[in-house]
Amino acid sequence: MTFEIVTQELLHGFWQNCEVFALTLLMAIPLGLVVTFGSMSKFKPLSALTKVFVWVIRGTPLMLQLFVVLYVPGLVFGVPMRNRMMAALIAFVINYSCYFSEIYRGGIEGVSKGQYEAGQVLGMTKSQIFFKVVLMQVIKRIVPPMSNEIITLVKDTSLARIIAVGEILMAAERYAGKGVIWPLFYTGVYFLLFNGILTLLFGFIEKKLDYYRG
Amino acid sequence: MAILEVNNIKKSFAKCEVLKGITFSLEKGEVLSIIGSSGSGKTTLLRCLNFLEFAEEGTISVNGNQIFDGKHFEKIKETEIRENRLHFGLVFQSFNLFPQYNVLENVVLAPNLLKRDTAENNQKRALDLLKRVGLSDKIDYYPCQLSGGQQQRVAIARALALDPDILCFDEPTSALDPELTGEVLKVIKGLKSKDSTMIIVTHEMEFAKSVSDKVIFMADGVIEEMGTPEEIFQNPKSQKTRNFLNKSLEQF
Ligand SMILES: Nc1ncnc2c1ncn2[C@@H]1O[C@H](COP(=O)(O)OP(=O)(O)O)[C@@H](O)[C@H]1O
Ligand SMILES: [Mg+2]
After folding, report:
1. Is the C-alpha dihedral spanning A188, A189, A194, A196 positive or negative?
2. Fewer CB within 10 Å, N or C, chain B?
3. Under an 8 A CB cutoff, do A120 and B144 touch?
4. Which residue has the CA at smallest separation from atom 8 of ligand 1?
5. Quick check: is A116 in a domain?
6. What are the angstrom distances between the C-alpha of A1 and each of A8, A11, A178, A181, B181?
7. How far away is chain B from the Cα of A108, in angstroms, using its nearest Cα?
């Protein structure tokens, strides 16, 4: 059992983590915006419903949500969830959409009313105000909290193991079962490297947006 | 013919009546100052003129065309509101520059979005305006790199870029350190010409006295007194006006 073989095996597992990570981001980033619009809607029943939903998702463990998505379709509706990866993705996307939506909401609400009004008195349309005036300011505001959340997501992907998605920790556990413990600790290196790259990337983006204040 | 006629404008928030029937008119090239203690409804009046708020009653006419009637305000379409807004410009107390754009971009953004002219001509005009407000050397600065006085001068150029019929100022120097008010007031005074009509809400009495053709003193949502600067400042008829002027003199 050489170092190279373990590295290969773990990399194979980590690929699953990357898949969960990338697909979750890809779907949760836009879906979060939909949730935000729901919770900020002037139509009270919609905003109340959305807020309760967000509260439930943020108030319960992601691990529990993974179980719910895996088992509830089979137990309640008689259509068992056969694809474990799919179940993991659904749980992750819903969970992260809710977290992202709260970050977006904070970002949008943080832009002062005066910015909208300045756009209005200059005769801009609502969409011009959103895209040309507000959006950049929202992005600047949400980059730091989003980077925190995204780094948490990298680590959370290992939770997929709990419903037997063959991610990196599961791969390492197989060795542990045979009495070889070091591959388990070795997995930390993968996460550290991945998050190191992300941290650099977000630092770069923040710096890019640092040319103005406010 | 009056460039602006405001007739019996009324506006309430919840149950509180803030404007109780405001009527005045303005000729082209005139400068109107509105004075009055805080809470008397000055900001609300300017916001009604710029359609940031909608009066429940009363009419607004520009150049003889009625552009607003409180009776029908719920039926007005978004595009119509936007077109009507362009008769007016508004300079805010808190500037409200767009922080992510530099000085020049702040000024050309709206003219470009509204396709006022070619991008080239819009830029040329913006540069002219920035020269007029004395900021030619700051065109690539960001708002956060400017003093409050400079930011307000950019805001003035930005409002002028759309060439409004009537330019409104809501206490343009109230958010500024005292040593910076002078530069902004000088710029506003420099705009006075036979073609530019302005409404200025201000607490700077000396400035109001020297720049205005007409002065309105507002109290509790009504025009308590209206007249030439001499009439208002030298011979106020109303006791309320006298009290207000005495109080604002005491402050200095
Ligand atoms: N959006 C609003 N909602 C409720 N009350 C408001 C609102 N805007 C202004 N008011 C009230 O209207 C009154 C006049 O305010 P304002 O027009 O800002 O006066 P001024 O500019 O003369 O100080 C104040 O009593 C203020 O509290
Ligand atoms: Mg005010």
Report:
1. positive
2. C
3. no
4. B44
5. no
6. 11, 15, 11, 12, 78
7. 15
Structure confidence by residue, pLDDT tens digits, B9-42: 999 999 899 999 999 999 999 999 999 999 999 9
Tens digit of each residue's pLDDT, chain A (214 residues): 689 999 999 999 999 999 999 999 999 999 999 999 999 999 999 999 999 999 999 999 999 999 999 999 999 998 888 899 999 999 999 999 999 999 999 999 999 999 999 999 999 999 999 999 999 999 999 999 999 999 999 999 999 999 988 899 999 999 999 999 999 999 999 999 999 999 999 999 999 999 998 7
CA separation for the pair B252, B250 (Å, rounded)? 5
In a domain, A132, yes or no: no
pTM: 0.89
Strand duo B166-170 + B197-201: pairing: parallel
Would you state the structure tokens that stand for residue A101, as one six-digit string? 């939506």
pLDDT digits over B162-215, tens only? Answer: 999 999 999 999 999 999 999 999 999 999 999 999 999 999 999 999 999 999
Nearest ligand to the CA atom of B19: 1
Q: Whose CA is nearest to atom 1 of ligand 1?
A: B13
Domain spanning B4-87+166-250 has what CATH number? 3.40.50.300
In chain A, the number of structural domains is: 1
Say if ligand 1 is within 6 A of residue B18 CB: yes
Q: How many angstroms separate the CA atoms of B196 and B42, rounded?
A: 21
Is B190 touching ligand 1 by the criterion CB < 6 Å? no
Subunit contact B52:A114, Cβ cutoff 8 A: no
Please state, in angstroms and rounded to a whole number, the distance separating the CA atoms of residues A18 and A52: 31
| Domain ranges across chain B | 4-87+166-250, 98-163
Between CA B174 and CA B170 the distance in angstroms is: 9
Residue B241 CA to ligand 1 centre (angstroms): 20
A176 belongs to a structural domain: yes
> Does some domain include residue A73?
yes
Parent domain of A161 = 3-111+139-211
